[in-house]
Write a structure and sequence with these properties.
Blueprint (H helix, E strand, L loop, with lengths): L31 E4 L5 E3 L4 E9 L6 E8 L3 H4 L7 E6 L12 E2 L8 E11 L5 E8 L1 H8 L2 E8 H10 L10 E3 L5 E9 L1 H11 L10 E6 L2 E6 H5 E2 L3 E2 L4 E5 L10 H9 L1 E8 L4 H7 L3 E7 L6 E7 H4 L42 E5 L20 H15 L2 E8 L9 E6 L16 E13 L3 E9 L17 H8 L15
Parallel strand pairs: 10-13, 16-22, 18-20
Antiparallel strand pairs: 1-2, 1-5, 3-4, 3-23, 4-8, 5-6, 5-7, 7-8, 9-11, 12-13, 14-15, 17-21, 18-19, 21-24, 22-23, 23-24
Helix pairs in contact: 3-4
Length: 503
């Protein structure tokens, strides 16, 4: 390997001690190699200002950026054009989970990233240029270059495995964590990019060992995942998972100086947080069908139809949620929105209005003698499952979303279950936590941010329930007796207005 040719002589402190971290945010990053299109290799770590790695359960591939301040004109010497590879090995000293806790993008033992774009090139002075290298996983680039035209028959997960591993398609050599699907059918992929094909399959997949609906297909720094929301928070839909990490927020910042115990506490401390979304947008969730949803399933051949109404509060317990984990761990209706009546009639809650959203779907069984139709028509169409899928997706996307900044920990990945403790008292660590916003969250997005001095993570997390139940009430808390008595008569008062009043 070539020696580092960078001239920026700023060396991060404490980055070579793999046994124990010297401070919270310490990291190990010995080299960042750039491999150009003719095989020339250079270590760009010393001219690197910032390394970012992005994971998301909504993105099919890992991406990243490297911010470069170049005083040696490497962009010209290496003829950088977007065909390069980036290799490195990033870890937290004393990392948990062994090799599984290392972000290994090395050339020999891992999976290097591929540069696909160069942006923001600026001439800072006569000898210095800055620019940003954008990179992504090998499968990201392969996806752009291949198409899938293939028919599959059997469980949906087998089709996903074939697309991921077949050398004619993605040809992935990475770890594939896949949850078996319960539904099977003939699938015809009509000349789609591999990621699009898998996303289409994911939208129709249902778990084999839980009552959930819908799958996520995404990549982390440890490999690819094809799995349901339930698998992120439970084991086989039945047993609670232990959160991978706990995080605490309290205004009084703890010192990281001194013992390893204090450093460990600093790793658990939240530097800053904000709620970027919460479940309390009742208007949006009503229109989206989160609480109530009517699905009409129509058979074009025999002209029959069926109607299925989804009710959030009645069907909440059928699936696992972040704070009611699994059937064995279920301990009450920890609804994200209370089941309090929403009208002054003291009867109906937010879920009792299925016509808030009405959807129409087709079911065409036994087409041409086969229990299948063309792809895009769900032959196993189940209106109740459709309503559940829409609601569950909304509960994640439009539920409580938390963004927080913490010290970098290389073993944390998108899809992990964590626990967030929002301390309500400033000085006592074991004080009571906020009953609504504390609790379990799933990490939906991660930005690993490494600079010259430390390693941080910006996490976006989602939860679809509350840590403490809302108290149900028998009637609307704001309804006065006089209003209820008046409204129950169903009378309408009309006041005549003199037309001369208007000019």
């Amino acid at each position: 390997m070539a020696e580092s040719r960078g001239t920026i002589n700023v060396i991060p402190t404490g980055v070579i001690h793999e046994e124990k971290p010297e401070f919270a945010g310490d990291y190990v990053l010995k080299h960042v190699f750039l491999h150009n299109h003719v095989g020339k290799v250079v270590d760009i770590k010393n001219i690197m200002i910032e390394l970012n790695i992005y994971e998301s359960i909504y993105n099919n591939a890992v991406t990243g950026t490297i911010v470069i301040v170049d005083t040696t004109n490497q962009i010209a010497k290496l003829k950088i054009q977007g065909l390069e590879r980036i290799s490195f090995r990033l870890s937290t000293p004393g990392v948990k989970y062994g090799n599984e806790g290392v972000i290994d993008a090395s050339e020999t033992t891992g999976h290097p990233f591929h540069v696909y774009k160069i942006t923001d090139r600026k001439q800072l002075n006569q000898n210095t240029t800055s620019y940003i290298l954008h990179f992504a996983s090998r499968e990201f680039m392969r996806n752009l270059r291949t198409k899938v035209s293939q028919a599959y028959e059997g469980t949906y997960d087998r089709a996903v495995i074939n697309i991921m591993k077949d050398e004619d398609y993605l040809d992935s050599r990475k770890k594939l964590s896949i949850e078996g699907t319960g539904n099977k059918d003939k699938i015809v992929i009509p000349n789609l990019r591999p990621f699009d094909a898998i996303n289409m399959i994911a939208s129709k997949s249902m778990p084999d060992k839980s009552d959930g609906v819908g799958y996520y297909f995404y990549e982390t720094t440890r490999g690819f995942n094809f799995r349901s929301w339930e698998s992120m928070i439970t084991s086989q839909g039945q047993f609670a998972k232990v959160p991978k990490q706990q995080f605490y927020y309290q205004p009084q910042k703890m010192s990281s100086e001194g013992s390893q115990d204090k450093i460990e506490k600093e790793f658990e401390s939240v530097e800053a947080y904000e709620f970027v979304n919460n479940f309390h947008d009742v208007a949006a969730n009503t229109m989206l069908g989160t609480y109530g949803h009517r699905v009409i399933t129509h058979n074009l051949y025999d002209k029959s139809y069926s109607i299925d109404d989804y009710n959030y509060h009645n069907q909440f317990s059928k699936t696992a949620h972040t704070d009611t984990i699994g059937k064995t761990g279920y301990n009450g209706n920890k609804f994200a929105v209370a089941d309090t009546p929403v009208d002054f009639d003291n009867i109906k809650n937010a879920s009792d209005y299925p016509e808030s959203r009405v959807s129409l779907q087709q079911s065409v069984p036994f087409l041409h003698g086969e229990n299948t139709g063309s792809w895009g028509i769900d032959t196993n169409a189940d209106g109740s499952k459709t309503g559940q899928k829409v609601s569950q997706s909304n509960q994640v996307i439009h539920g409580t979303a938390l963004r927080m900044t913490v010290k970098g920990q290389s073993y944390v990945q998108a899809g992990d279950l964590i626990q967030f403790n929002l301390v309500t008292e400033q000085s006592v660590r074991n004080a009571d936590n906020d009953p609504r916003f504390s609790g379990n969250y799933v990490i939906t997005k991660i930005r690993h941010k490494v600079n010259k001095t430390d390693y941080k993570m910006i996490l976006e997390c989602a939860k679809d329930s509350v840590a403490t139940n809302y108290v149900s009430v028998g009637g609307h808390p704001n309804a006065s007796d006089s209003y209820l008595k008046t409204s129950s008569k169903k009378t309408v008062q009309i006041e005549e207005i003199d037309s001369d009043f208007y000019i």
